[in-house]
Every structure is written in C-alpha cells, then in structure tokens.
Amino acid sequence: MSFYASSEGIRITQENRRTWLVGRARRTDGSWKDVKFDLDNVVGNADGRLTWGGQGFTETSSNVRFNFEGGGNVPVLRARLRNAAGGEQESDLNLGERLTNVNGDLVFN
C-alpha cells in the first residue's frame, strides 16, 4: 500500500544527526498507528545525490526538507548535499518509489 495515500500528518524531523519520517499510518483494520521511520538507514549520499540503499545522508547534507508536490501529491525529500569535489548541490528523492505502508508500518522495498 502506498505509504503517502494511507498516512496522515507525514513530515520529517531531525534528531541526533538523523532524519526521521514521522506521522500516522493506517492499518488494514482501519485504525491508525504512530510511525517513525529512520531515513538515514535507507538513503545515502552518492557524490551529491540522494540515493536509495545508502546510509547516513544527513551527515553530509544541509537544508533537508520534505513536501508533497504536484497534482499527485508526490512525497519528495530534498536536501543540499556535499559532493566529492567538496562543493554542494541540490538533490531530491521521491519517497513513494520505495517506501510502503504494511499494516501501519513504514517499510523500505
């Protein structure tokens, strides 16, 4: 199940140099569950680009933000990331590509 179509109050928070996706996700019985998903366990920085399957992007980023964008309310993570040359560049990642809601739990696929 698409996490963003079956959740509410989704936003990011940062604590202890990590970025968390938090909100409430609907279970299959229709009830709601508070969720907190550590994006740093599944998102990395590959030479200034947010990438799936990496880790620890927050350590090399600034201006991390999250919004639902466009007509489809696509859940987009954006940040400025350091690259190998020492500069910074803007990058974004569609969180709907790999995150799903499995009975009230956010899961990386």
UniProtKB/TrEMBL annotation:
Gene3D superfamilies: Cyanovirin-N. It holds the Pfam family CVNH. It comes from the Eukaryota. Residues 2-108 form the Cyanovirin-N domain. SUPFAM superfamilies: Cyanovirin-N. InterPro entries: Cyanovirin-N (IPR011058), Cyanovirin-N_sf (IPR036673). This is Cyanovirin-N domain-containing protein.
